[in-house]
Design brief:
Elements (H helix, E strand, L loop, with lengths): L8 H13 L19 H18 L3 H13 L1 E6 L2 E6 L8 H19 L5
Length: about 120
């Protein structure tokens, strides 16, 4: 599957050409939805710096802190595999757009400040 982001007249014309070039001998599926930019590398780096600082206070690994914060913010489901039960977050941060990721990160920062007394300058 390919993704084409229509951001100007040129890319819109390209999309029309692609559609006109599709064979009608078989069915095709198409989804059109608003496009949002994904989280930035800087946002992601800041989040992991926060998790690292939190891990130094709690003794949990940064990856464990990340999982805990995902469950806290997005909710979770209980799963069992091989006799081990655990909570799995309903959403991952890697699939959030900049706006959603910012809201998640603000929640994480607020929690870490109020509960652990840690923050970034």
């Amino acid at each position: 599957m390919s993704e084409l982001v229509i951001k100007d007249e040129v890319t819109r014309e390209r999309a029309v050409k692609i559609l006109l070039g599709l064979s009608v001998d078989r069915p095709w599926a198409m989804t059109v939805e608003p496009w949002y930019s994904k989280r930035s590398n800087a946002q992601n780096a800041r989040l992991w710096l926060l998790h690292t600082k939190a891990s130094e206070v709690t003794g949990y690994a940064p990856t464990e802190m990340h999982e805990l914060m995902l469950c806290r913010y997005f909710g979770f489901q209980d799963v069992e595999f091989g006799g081990v039960k655990r909570q799995v977050p309903l959403k991952r941060s890697s699939q959030r757009d900049k706006k959603e990721f910012s809201a998640f990160m603000e929640s994480v920062e607020s929690f870490y400040i109020s509960e652990l007394g840690i923050f970034l300058d």
